[in-house]
Write the structure tokens for this entry.
Amino acid sequence: MLLLTGGSLAVSLPIDHSKWDAMLKKYVDVQALVDYRKWNETGKPDVETYLAQLARPWRAGMSPEEEKSALINAYNALTVEWVLQNFPITSIWRTDHPFAAARHTVNGRDISLNQIESRLRAAGDPRIHAALVCASRSCPPLRREAYAPDRIDQQRDDNARAWLSNANLNEFLPASRRAKVSPIFKWYAADFEHGAGSIAKFLARYAPASQSAFLRQPDAKIDYQTYDWDLNDNSNLGAGYSQIQFLWDYFRNKF
């Protein structure tokens, strides 16, 4: 169940995502990179105001589309807020327990980013992995608009296509019948197998048509790239954050 039950105090008004929409248009560029410095200097109160709305108990009877939109927006906005709280940083992994700590409040409940992700994954739609952005260079592109209940299906399709058409994140080589794709497909292989039939079928559906026909053949090969955890900042603030540093930070946060 996607709804984070908020009890009898649920408000009656729908959630207004317009403030989040305006911030995305202002601080995210066409390459899906974020101007965290400017956001930190001029936009932190707006993030906090928007998240305060999401923190309150949600109204009863929300549609699945309303819940999904609110949860995706919550995940992405909370991630941005966490980066701003710790700015400047070279990677979100330089912070303490960025994904596992239940330090956020959504729908009247304390929750972690991992828990929000798990609730969205439970719906069985692997396109969710194209919508959630964890503040890294290898994330799918951060959409420059809020997810909206009346357009969320189209928006998820658009983001899946934008993700797979970005050659820096996913590469398709028809001549050698090989794809070099994000490790997200390996980490969440079961989601793509259950929701799309296989990783190859998902890729064939959303990758550029001129490059992806070979993925429908049984001899297609899929390799996985190394994930770049540099901050998705437009000033290259995270440039040089190495895999060794990531492993150190990962295990530091693990124990």
